[in-house]
Specification:
Length: about 210
């Protein structure tokens, strides 16, 4: 938890309380349904919570923004972002039901009212969002194909509507066809070695009506 306050010192008491509760909720539920590896659960704040919040260093979502987290798994990056941006709406989607069971229990335990979850493949979602976030569930071309037609037209944020993707390593080949992409090195925000090669990738997507 100290790690979160190190980089986000202006959290409200409510946000601090919710971030503190995350570890206990995930540890309890992970014993019943394994969604986070044992090594990662012991370093939950470093490897999951803070990693998710790298997106909050790239963009401060305006109130009312709608964000979909695709392949949310155990709830990352969606749950930590939902705590950070309580006036935004988050839709967490995953095709594996047992993972969403844990997410639902964590969301309920935290009393998060700005999160909904859906057990489906993202292609089946018929809504539009300001941003689609995810943590490396597929190569970018595949992910762009999956999420086609799901970006909203009205622009309300400092960054253009589109995809915010947490990825690691050398992305030169994977991203070579995208001329409008911006890569943000997470190591410029967080000094821990874990983030040395990790990035937030922003790909603006034009609305297709």
């Amino acid at each position: 938890m100290k790690l979160i306050l190190k980089y986000f010192p202006n959290l409200t008491e409510d946000q601090i309380q919710k971030y503190e509760m995350l570890e206990r909720l995930y540890k309890d539920w992970n014993l019943k349904i394994n969604v986070v590896s044992r090594k990662d659960i012991d370093e939950l704040y470093l490897r999951h919570v803070l990693h998710a919040l790298a997106i909050a260093k790239v963009i401060q979502f305006k109130d009312g923004s709608r964000i979909m987290d695709v392949g949310t798994g155990g709830g990352f990056p969606g749950v930590p972002l939902a705590i950070m941006f309580p006036n935004c709406k988050f839709h967490l989607v995953d095709s594996i039901a047992k993972k969403l069971k844990v997410v639902n229990e964590v969301v309920e335990g935290l009393g998060l009212e700005n999160v909904k979850t859906t057990h489906t493949r993202v292609e089946s979602i018929n809504e539009t969002y300001d941003f689609i976030v995810s943590r490396a569930v597929a190569a970018m071309p595949t992910f762009v194909h999956w999420t086609k037609g799901k970006i909203a037209k009205p622009q309300n944020n400092a960054l253009k509507n589109g995809i915010l993707y947490l990825k690691g390593g050398d992305l030169t080949e994977e991203l070579k066809d995208y001329k409008t992409i911006t890569e943000y090195d997470i190591k410029t925000f967080f000094e821990e070695d874990f983030y040395e090669t990790k990035k937030v990738v922003h790909l603006p997507i034009k609305y297709k009506g």
